[in-house]
From TrEMBL:
<dbReference type="Pfam" id="PF00282">
    <property type="entry name" value="Pyridoxal_deC"/>
</dbReference>
<protein>
    <recommendedName>
        <fullName>Glutamate decarboxylase</fullName>
        <ecNumber>4.1.1.15</ecNumber>
    </recommendedName>
</protein>
<comment type="similarity">
    <text>Belongs to the group II decarboxylase family.</text>
</comment>
<dbReference type="InterPro" id="IPR002129">
    <property type="entry name" value="PyrdxlP-dep_de-COase"/>
</dbReference>
<dbReference type="InterPro" id="IPR015421">
    <property type="entry name" value="PyrdxlP-dep_Trfase_major"/>
</dbReference>
<dbReference type="GO" id="GO:0004351">
    <property type="term" value="F:glutamate decarboxylase activity"/>
</dbReference>
<dbReference type="InterPro" id="IPR017756">
    <property type="entry name" value="TM_Gly-Cys-Arg_CS"/>
</dbReference>
<keyword id="KW-0456">Lyase</keyword>
<keyword id="KW-0210">Decarboxylase</keyword>
<dbReference type="InterPro" id="IPR015424">
    <property type="entry name" value="PyrdxlP-dep_Trfase"/>
</dbReference>
<keyword id="KW-0663">Pyridoxal phosphate</keyword>
<dbReference type="InterPro" id="IPR010107">
    <property type="entry name" value="Glutamate_decarboxylase"/>
</dbReference>
């Protein structure tokens, strides 16, 4: 029977209740599309309930991504459901809003000559796509330079510290060697003096990370640039920087305004950031911005004429919803610089509070207390061998209360250090973090006693 056949006139039949209908007695089709259509409210109720099995996004302290939005954002997303951002001729206002965002970001990141709305950049699906576009521009420019000099162009490399997976993808998909600089003892990211060993004539660029995924720390972009200046003086190699500011691009301009990491550094040729992380937009938007238009090679930009009008496009995909872009602009207008400063500042304070709690608990050594870079806390077990439990055990315990707090080893060469990381972002409040700290204490107590979980506390009654 099709789901829709279960419907009786409203109010006349117990079967009008979705969960009293035969549908609820059967499993949903999983491997083959059903023959017949069904009523939307019945299907909705089934899927709504199935989705409850997903983790609770608000308790997911592993993600950098937005999990809280104004109702107005939800409304705008709904209104933009049918707007294809690639179709700039049909939806010129959405296209204009995208361009405004690019200009706002270029200005926020201190690009030269952004007057008159002429900043060079684009929206993407996230930082991954934006990073690929930045990497491609680097590769193209390097190749043009090499060809002009009559030199081989078959072995490009890109140099970086502990990168997010998107740079591994860039390297493999676009046939570039990723020269990954290992972490020094005690370091949380690339250290400038390491560069010499890795940079050569085939280096298309250095990636500096503002907000290292594993440690939440900023890499010292200005010092990296200064070291590349020295390398240029000594060897003639002129190596540009792409800043992967996936998270930090929306934090540093508000909380660390004296930190020079952006287009104020001439060597920084492009920057990516995730609108859907600390940019506070809902999932599905990132940004790539170039210092000047000349840094984006023209043959990477395609002109499309079959949507009516001539439309330049630089992107890996084509059709994409416009809602996230509109929501990004909404946040810019809604919060302004003062609002972003306040939102990120409150997150940093909450991180500091949690860091204080974690420090008091006893078995942990703080690696990062949420000050100076991303609003986050990371720590390790002071005595992993003697603790009687691992951070993975603690993650499991916290999971029983719904908290997602990841434990993982640091990248090479610090892989013997296992850390735990909590990200504080918009919507994760002080009270929530206080409850997390309480659950951490309870978990530690259980782990110390070596007893199985206290299931009563977790809300299971038999
Ligand atoms: C999250 C992140 C990325 C990938 O960004 P998406 O928006 O998820 O594609 C890249 N680099 C860094 C440093 C990140 O934190």
């Amino acid at each position: 029977m099709a789901l829709h056949e279960m419907k009786a006139p409203k109010g006349t039949d117990a079967r009008t209740d979705v969960f009293a209908s035969p549908l609820s007695e059967r499993v949903l089709p999983k491997y083959r599309m059903p023959e017949e259509p069904s009523l939307p409210e019945a299907v909705y109720a089934m899927l709504h309930n199935e989705l409850l099995l997903d983790g609770n996004a608000a308790q997911n302290l592993a993600t950098f991504c937005t999990t809280w939005s104004d109702d107005e954002v939800r409304r705008l997303m709904d209104e933009c459901l049918d707007k294809n951002m690639i179709d700039k001729d049909e939806y010129p206002q959405t296209a204009e809003i995208e361009a405004r965002c690019v200009n706002i970001l270029a200005d926020l990141w201190n690009a030269p000559e952004v007057v008159g709305g002429r900043a060079m950049g684009c929206s993407t699906t996230g930082s991954s796509e934006a990073a690929m576009l930045g990497g491609l521009a680097l590769k193209w420019r390097w190749r043009e330079r090499r060809r002009a000099e009559g030199k081989p162009v078959d072995r490009p490399n890109i140099v970086a510290g502990p990168v997010q997976i998107c740079w591994d993808k860039f390297a493999r998909y676009f046939d570039v060697e990723l020269r990954q600089v290992p972490l020094e003892d005690g370091a949380t990211g690339l250290r400038p003096h390491q560069l010499r060993e890795y940079v050569d004539e085939n280096t298309i660029g250095v990636v500096a990370i503002l907000g290292v995924t594993f440690t939440c720390d900023y890499e010292p972009v200005a010092e990296i640039a200064a070291e590349l200046d020295r390398i240029q003086e000594e060897t003639g190699l002129d190596v540009p920087i792409h800043v992967d500011a996936a998270s930090g691009g929306f934090v540093a301009p508000f909380l660390h305004r004296d930190l020079v990491w952006d287009f104020r550094l001439e060597r920084v040729s492009s920057i990516n950031a995730s609108g859907h992380k600390y940019g506070l937009a809902p999932l599905g938007v990132g940004w790539a911005v170039w210092r000047t238009a000349e840094l984006l090679p023209k043959d990477l930009v395609f002109d499309v004429n079959y949507l009516g009008g001539d439309l330049p496009t630089f992107a890996l995909n084509f059709s994409r919803p416009g809602g996230e872009i509109v929501a990004q602009y909404y946040n810019f207008l809604r919060l302004g610089r003062a609002g972003y400063r306040r939102v990120q500042g409150v997150c940093a304070e909450t991180a500091r509070y949690l860091a204080g709690q974690v420090a008091e608990m006893g078995p942990f050594t703080l690696l990062y207390d949420g000050q100076g870079a991303l609003p986050a806390v990371s720590y390790t077990l002071t005595d992993p061998a003697g603790a009687g439990f691992s951070l993975y055990d603690l993650s499991d315990q916290l999971r029983m209360r719904g908290w997602q707090v990841p434990s993982y080893p640091l990248p090479a060469d610090r892989q013997e250090t296992v850390v735990q990381r909590v990200l504080i972002r918009h919507g994760v409040g002080r009270d929530e973090v206080d409850l997390l700290a309480r659950d951490m204490r309870d978990s530690l107590e259980r782990l110390r006693r070596g007893k199985p979980a206290d299931t009563e506390r977790a809300g299971f009654h038999h």
